[in-house]
Amino acid sequence: MEKFKTFITQNKKLVYGVIAIIIIAAGAKIGYDYHSNNIISRIEVKFYGYNGHGDAVIRNAESVNKYMTRRVLQKDHIKKDVINKIVSHPDTFDYSMLSSEDQYKIQSSIEDLSSTRLEFKGKSTELKNGDKVTVTFKNSNSELSFRDGKKTFTVKGLKKSTKVSSNKIFNQLKIKALGINGKGQIALSSKNSDLINSNIKVKNNGHLSNGDVISLTLPKAAFKDSSGKHQYTGSRTFKYKISGLIDSKSITNVDDITDATDTVMSDYTDDKQFADEKYTSKFVNLYVTPYNENEEEYYDDDDNEVSSKVEVTDASENSTSSSNKLSIVAIYSVNSSDADDDDEPENVAVEVNNLSLNDGKLNIKDKKITSDDNVSTLSDSIKTYERNLEVSGLKLK
């Protein structure tokens, strides 16, 4: 013991130097361990998108995951070259080439890693510049030396939204007035998914006239840009002036129409003749009405009024509901040569559907009209039938 004291006394400088080296080395190791185990200090966050709609992501999540994988595999004494291959190509690495002991170690390492969680705490979407986001790291496995921690970042660098007039959305809505002047209705279509299938209220729909000005309020969803790139300004209610409804001056080939219906009625009466009994037909009047294969979609469920809510259809699909197709109905009375004076004549209608109006002319000459397909007997009186036609139609002659 005395010799040891003498050695210390004679070699104070040397001893103190060694102690200093030991302390410095220990401190360096502690500092290294602290940094290497402090996962949260390695985290980098990236912000992208538009101000008010920005998103945050962990920029280096993959490299941090590789770092932790390497550390855990090293802890379990996996060979360096194997670790490099696993970290570089985890999906294609051939684990079967390893010993069963190493396979077990790797499986254990993966289970250890599953006990760690790196995530955003709180909001990480719909961000604006100046917001704060926090990333947390949690290690619930006492066998791992990784430290819990959290780090807060200030949102910056999000792009500024571009202001766009709400007219841009309105211009994506196709509007068409259909039917007869004074009894018109609106058809709406669009290729904008935020407008398709929405219901837009149209005041006096079914009773519209050329020159009427209607207000259309588009749904709020159509003006919300989830990316934040566009900020719509202005009203979502727009004015539209009605035009294009059919009136008495719209159709100029009425004589062509009655010539066609007279011809088919001549065939009809010829077919009815038996022995000496002859039949003659007399023209009563001619109506034009809107034609739509899916007529029920225009009406409310509880009555025969045209619905004030108009559904926006997909403009990329062909739809007869948005085309101004027309029907003509010619009414005739048919008399028999053998009829008594007090016998009622037979009342019939010639109906031709799906007609188009081009340059003031209905394409009646394009249609094949037969007594079997286009002529029907009226179950009601002519006056009753006319009242029904006048609800949505127009008398031409």
UniProtKB/TrEMBL annotation:
Stretches that traverse the bilayer:
14-32
The name of this protein is Uncharacterized protein
Please report the organism this UniProt entry assigns to the protein: Pediococcus acidilactici
Q: Which UniProt keywords apply?
A: Membrane, Transmembrane, Transmembrane helix
